[in-house]
Specification:
By secondary structure, the chain is an alpha/beta fold. About 40% of the residues lie in helices and about 15% in strands. Strand 4, helix 4 and strand 5 form a beta-alpha-beta unit. The longest helix has 21 residues. Bound molecules: 2'deoxy-thymidine-5'-diphospho-alpha-D-glucose (DAU). The site of 2'deoxy-thymidine-5'-diphospho-alpha-D-glucose has 19 residues, from helix 5 and strand 7.
Length: about 300
């Protein structure tokens, strides 16, 4: 595994596999060809590009890292795969399609990204497809919906709300909170990526969406109930600029390959809340570190 360990990456996130003899960790950037080359020494037959700057709010405030990682980083990995004739999987996002009020996106839907995050992810997808068409690289793309589960950095909706609820902090809902997301448990998404790596056809795109859609305000209300917090903690704050209203993915194509999402949102959310409640060792250093300064910049108030 090659990882730069930027603000959201930590060795604590892979402590449970670190001693496995099949696992090797190299600290470095995907946009650094030397780091990529040293990671690919010996017995590697595929590259799966999970590396990304993922947070939409950060891409609105400071887009430069998004261009570097998604455009340049993907290019460096593609070149490495081409030179060594490796298989390649690009981990992508439903955000490349933009927002959909009714219905659901298929792999043939138009690409209409709306944030610097999703626009640079779209650019990376197009570059991957060009390497298939031009050089015959055995590349596939998996587009996931909103992931949730343990070890997620608390800038994202669910861990942010869980930790704020547990600490008695305000729960900042953007705008009216009626934006809809198509939640997928991280284990289901990981299985979808593995499934495409094993069974996907080169040159193809596969959507992998979760089984349930939820309005943000309903997610937050469920978290209030699961944590025993108070609904009075919910605060409607200024909306995200260019905020996509709804995401919805059709996953029929990857389901036809034999994948199916197993975790229903109600169960996965309850498990996730319990994980955060029981694993303060994991989030305490985050909540007392750089995250506090980010929170103040983003929300204009301090955490308790
Ligand atoms: O759809 C897949 C995408 O899901 C991934 O490609 C992105 O990397 C990932 O960050 C996520 O994007 P979102 O922008 O949908 O996730 P986020 O957790 O930031 O926000 C989820 C929804 O909750 C969104 O409508 C904005 C809203 N929200 C978020 C935060 C952090 C709030 O209302 N308040 C908040 O404080």
């Amino acid at each position: 595994m090659l990882d730069k360990l930027t603000y959201a990456g930590r060795e604590e996130n892979f402590h449970d596999v670190a001693s496995d003899e099949r696992f090797r960790f190299v600290r470095g950037a995907i946009e650094d060809p030397d780091a990529v080359a040293s990671t690919l020494d010996g017995g590697i037959d595929a590259i799966v590009n999970f590396a990304a700057e993922t947070h939409v709010d950060r891409s609105i405030a400071e887009p430069d890292a998004f261009v570097r990682t998604h455009a340049l980083g993907t290019y460096v990995l593609l070149e490495a795969a081409r030179e060594r004739e490796l298989r390649y999987v690009q981990v992508s996002t439903d955000e490349v399609y933009g927002s959909i009020d009714v219905g659901t996106f298929t792999e043939d839907s138009a690409l209409r990204p709306s944030s610097p995050y999703s626009a640079t992810k779209t650019g990376a997808d197009l570059l991957v497809q060009s390497y298939f068409h031009t050089y015959g690289l055995r590349a596939t793309i998996v587009r996931g919906s909103n992931n949730y589960g343990p070890y997620q950095y608390p800038e994202k909706l669910i861990p942010l709300m869980v930790l704020n609820a547990l600490h008695g902090d305000a729960l900042p809902v953007y705008g009216d909170g009626m934006q809809v997301r198509n939640w997928i448990h991280c284990t289901d998404f990981a299985h979808a990526i593995g499934h495409v790596l094993a069974h996907g056809d080169p040159g193809e795109v596969y959507n992998a969406g979760g089984p349930d859609e939820q309005a943000n305000i309903d997610v937050v209300r469920r978290i209030v109930t699961l944590t025993g917090a108070s609904e009075d903690q919910i605060e409607h704050v200024s909306d995200r600029p260019g905020h996509d209203r709804r995401y919805s993915l059709s996953s029929d194509k990857v389901c036809a390959l034999g994948w199916t999402p197993r975790v229903r949102f109600e169960d996965g959310l309850a498990e996730t809340v319990a994980w955060y409640r029981d694993n303060a060792w994991w989030w305490e250093p985050i909540r007392s570190g750089e995250y506090r300064a980010y929170y103040e910049r983003q929300y204009g108030r301090s955490l308790s």
